[in-house]
């Protein structure tokens, strides 16, 4: 199987993962903060995961944020790009067509401690592991975990309509609570009713719902980068830390300080 040049640092190992005739293969690479992988697609489905650091995965349909307790499922032949928000230790798992997917489209999924350890352990096995050996048993366990994995509603949908795309790009560039729908409509020469219809038609969300999701995902990235909860609340425009914490708990069921609890780092 031939692969196009995507990232010279990983292209050789990536080609081996895509070429190997096994249901599961794992690619490991440690990126620097602000590194980017340009838009590309693979013939195999993948579970993009990082044991440390944060990343944003983007497609034409939206964006997904990765933390050490989560991964993003990307179906085969789905064009996507990746932005490293803090230096991630990426451990991507590729699955062939024999493995039932946890979702039919891109989705954030939770990574259990067992699945995390299986991913790390699989790196110790040869890519062409014997079909009757330890590697095959680990791969079977990984597929079993994939079948019961929990998907999470942490997707930020993205518009295609040019006017709404311009507004969403501006809001994404500087995520902050200030600026209501009337503000954005006026600054883009349209009525607030027109803007409301565009959000509902393009994204199936209201202006307020989309902005709340934007701020929620940005908050998780900044918290994972080590910023304090109070400084994140202030930088995103919340009047008080309690208001920010209430929003966070309502959306995720945990406080800002609780949501980053994850397994301790491993060396692979």
Question: What would you note in describing this structure?
Answer:
This protein is α+β, with helices and mostly antiparallel strands. It has two domains: 11-152, Regulatory protein AraC (Jelly Rolls, Sandwich), CATH 2.60.120; 159-252, Arc Repressor Mutant, subunit A. The protein contains nine helices and eleven strands. It has helices spanning 11-19, 113-122, 134-147, 162-173, 181-186, 192-203, 207-224, 229-235, 241-252; strands at 24-30, 36-40, 45-49, 54-59, 62-66, 70-74, 80-86, 89-95, 107-110, 151-152, 155-157. The chain has a six-stranded antiparallel beta sheet, with helices on both faces. A hairpin with a 2-residue loop joins strand 4 and strand 5. Helix 2 packs antiparallel against helix 3 and helix 8 (229-235) crosses helix 9 (241-252). The longest helix is centred in the C-terminal third of the chain and has 18 residues, at 207-224. The protein is globular, with a radius of gyration of 20 Å. The two termini are 27 Å apart. Residues 262-267 have low confidence and may be disordered.
Can you lay out the helices and strands and say which pair or pack?
Blueprint: H1 11-19, E1 24-30, E2 36-40, E3 45-49, E4 54-59, E5 62-66, E6 70-74, E7 80-86, E8 89-95, E9 107-110, H2 113-122, H3 134-147, E10 151-152, E11 155-157, H4 162-173, H5 181-186, H6 192-203, H7 207-224, H8 229-235, H9 241-252
Helix pairs in contact: 2-3, 8-9
